[in-house]
Amino acid sequence: MTKKIVFLLLVAVSLNAQDFGFGFGDDGSFGGNSLSVSIGGEVSAEVNVFFDDFSDGADNFRLGDLFSGKLNFSAETAYAKGVINLKLEPSEQPVSIDEAYVGAFFGPFEIEAGLRKLTWGKADSFGPLDVINPLDYSELTGLGDMMNLKIARPLIRASYRLDSFSKIEGVFVPWFEGLRFDTEGRWIPAQLQQLDLLQALGVPVFRPDTSTIDYAQGGVRFTTTLGPADLGFQYYYGRLTRPAVTMELSPPSPVPAAAHFAYNPYHHIGIDWAQVLFGFNIRAEAAANITSDLKGDDGSVYNPSLLWSLGFDRDILWGINLNLQCNETIRLMHSKIDSNSFLDIEADTDVTSTQVTAVLSKKFLRDEFEARAVVLWEIEEKDFFIMPTICWTRDTVSIELGAGIFGGNDEGQFGSYRDNSFVKISMTYCF
User: 152, 168, 199, 333: which one has the fewest Cβ atoms less than 10 Å from its Cβ?
Assistant: First the structure.
């Protein structure tokens, strides 16, 4: 396997990511149909050092895997295309598929099938309308890269372009996967640690088989332009990616008899809007997630909720660009939740969940240097994540020095990882 990877890397580097024609004619044509093939990717060496490693002594000091890479292959004609994007890592599975799909074009109609990462909505990150792909939280040193967090899903996507500004698309996902978390090590969430404790006490934990057609999902989205505004409308039927974990009691024992994972089905209705106003690139989204708990008193099902997002980006002063976004989820029928019962999955939680994302960036020296800071702040949880970086890029080589700082309330999503703050340095060659 290693020899095959090296061979592919050598071929990709030699091609230098240039498009070329395959065929019998000098113009790269075959049977009257021009074929364009491209190969590209990147090779990276990265060192992540966690702050707590310094206090644990040299015996526990680790530099990580150092190497990672990507290989991207695509071929396209006027009527079809195929894409394979691979991830390369020195692990038990050194080559994994990031995306792989095939598509066909029939005039204004297009159909694709395979492993895909799609983006619905106008928000730059963590938008309420981006419902197709779950996120991978099993390793959080790349928390600022939204597309890298997405998990590609097997799906069929069809779209029809009504005119130059309007398009309707439909998506069918034949089975389901929820959010992905670390199950051991430094990135395991506190809730999973509690389940591990229950399992150590002999409590069985049951997880559903979500790879069946019973977990199929699908939706439709329409986008258009009206004057200076871009609009989108969508409907999606799927499963909430965050599991609902319920306990089965066995009185009089205080220890639960079993724990059950479930992924609640829901109907999603959303609308988005984007427009340039007074020099601000504004994006807004609003959605309703309607679960089966319409009365709000079923402790095993998440309540229906309203979601919204509002953000903009703009150069503010001294060439500094600010990208600011606020997301909020508002739970409906919050008063029906039994806040004193550990059997209600939403007990002892806030009626709202609000997160602010800010990205500040500034380029220097003919754009070769860039200073950048990503800030994620959870208002109700009173915790945060800050990732400052400095990057130097020349041609196809870049060197980056950065850090990731978790802080705030140690019961919050980010604050619980306060011992996992880190510093990293990487060098990347893109071809």
Answer: 199
- Written as tens digits, the pLDDT of the chain (431 aa) is 444 433 343 334 333 434 434 333 444 334 446 899 999 999 999 998 888 877 766 566 666 678 889 999 999 999 999 999 999 988 767 899 999 999 999 999 999 999 999 999 999 888 999 999 999 999 898 887 888 899 999 999 999 999 999 999 999 999 999 999 998 888 999 888 888 888 888 899 999 999 999 999 999 999 999 999 999 999 999 999 999 999 888 888 888 889 999 999 999 999 999 999 999 999 999 999 999 999 999 999 999 999 999 999 999 999 999 999 999 999 999 999 987 777 899 998 999 999 999 999 999 988 999 999 999 999 999 999 999 999 999 999 999 999 999 999 998 999 999 999 999 999 999 99
Please write down the long-range contacts of 333-336, taking CB distance under 8 Å and 24 or more positions apart.
333/293, 333/295, 333/296, 333/297, 333/303, 333/304, 334/296, 334/303, 335/296, 336/295, 336/296, 336/297, 336/303
Please give the helix or strand (H or E) that residue 69 lies within, else none.
Answer: strand 66-76
- Which two three-digit tokens encode residue 359? 């990205």
